[in-house]
Design brief:
Bound molecules: NADPH dihydro-nicotinamide-adenine-dinucleotide phosphate, 2-hydroxyethylsulfonic acid
Largest sheet: 7 strands, parallel
Strand content: 15-25%
CATH architecture: 3-Layer(aba) Sandwich
Number of strands: 9
Shape: globular
Helix content: 40-55%
Strand order of the largest sheet: 3-2-1-4-5-6-7
CATH class: Alpha Beta
Length: about 250
């Protein structure tokens, strides 16, 4: 049975990793999926795997473009997933350009998507708004500094939505995974594939599909049930800075 038939879902950051996996599961459940990210060819490839999908090339850092592309639409489900980490060095040696990009994408970009999509949900009195947070939004770890700060902010934005836009039939969810093997580490280490691979050496990370499954669980509960904060750890990771490796 397709549980999301006649629903329209927006997934930001759908060109890779968790966003791609989420778009695929929502599409397999019958949703029309709007795939948003910057890389159009990657989005087209994901769209080709979904029965009903469309591509929107969108940089979430661009507030006007978010409003233009998303503001006039109605979405039953929004998965605000686009995000990145850059670098893993100490705060005293951090690069302000990396800080700006992380804050612009993970905080301002999230706010732009929220601002463009929440009003129509409020007007219709329904919707599922899902924010991709992280365990990094609960515990700072060595070298995580500004990335962690951006994910603490994402959690605050999720809480703010519940408070400011609550009472209109909308369900607010934040899914907070630990280590997931995606392109995240490749981006964090500026394309250094060997360093990215080492992060997961001797342990079993989450797969993007595990996180997508959690999103699907949240958006397929009965209407009176709102899954709020969900934290997903790999069994081999017991805190943001403790990983058990064989
Ligand atoms: P990926 O690098 O595989 O995917 C990131 C996605 O975000 C890509 O589709 C990328 O698309 C998109 N994106 C990045 N910047 C922008 C932008 N400015 N505008 C639009 N889209 C953008 O990483 P993940 O799938 O792992 O990451 C997804 C989310 O999950 C992030 O928010 C991340 O912080 C979070 N997360 C990841 C964990 C992990 O261990 N992997 C753990 C916990 C949370 P494009 O480049 O085409 O724009
Ligand atoms: C991204 C994964 O392990 O750096 O949120 O927190 S981790």
């Amino acid at each position: 049975m397709q549980r999301l038939k006649k629903k329209t879902a927006l997934v930001s950051g759908a060109s890779s990793g968790i966003g791609r996996a989420t778009a695929l599961v929502l599409g397999a459940e019958g949703a029309h999926v709007v795939l948003a990210a910057r890389r159009s060819a990657r989005l087209e490839a994901v769209a080709a795997e979904i029965d009903s999908a469309e591509v929107q090339v969108l940089d979430v850092c661009d507030a006007d473009r978010c409003q233009e592309v998303l503001g006039e639409r109605t979405f039953d489900i929004v998965v605000a997933n686009a995000g990145l980490g850059l670098g893993l060095g100490s705060i005293q040696e951090g690069d302000p350009r990396d800080w700006r990009r992380m804050i612009d994408t993970n905080v301002n970009g999230l706010l732009h998507v929220v601002r463009a999509t929440l009003p129509q949900m409020i007007a219709r009195g329904s919707g599922d708004h899902v924010v991709l947070g992280s365990v990094a939004g609960f515990q700072v770890y060595p070298g995580g500094n500004v990335y962690c700060a951006s994910k603490y902010a994402a959690r605050a934005i999720y809480e703010a939505m519940r408070i400011d836009a609550g009472g209109h039939g909308i369900r607010f969810t934040t899914i907070n995974p630990g280590m997931v093997e995606t392109e995240f580490s490749l981006v964090r280490f500026d394309g250094d594939a060997r360093r990215a691979k080492e992060i997961y050496a001797g342990m079993t990370p989450l797969r993007a599909e595990d996180v997508a499954d959690a999103v699907l669980y949240a958006v397929t509960r009965p209407p009176h049930v709102n899954v709020g904060e969900m934290v997903l750890w790999p069994t081999d990771q017991t805190s943001t800075s403790v990983v058990h490796r064989s």
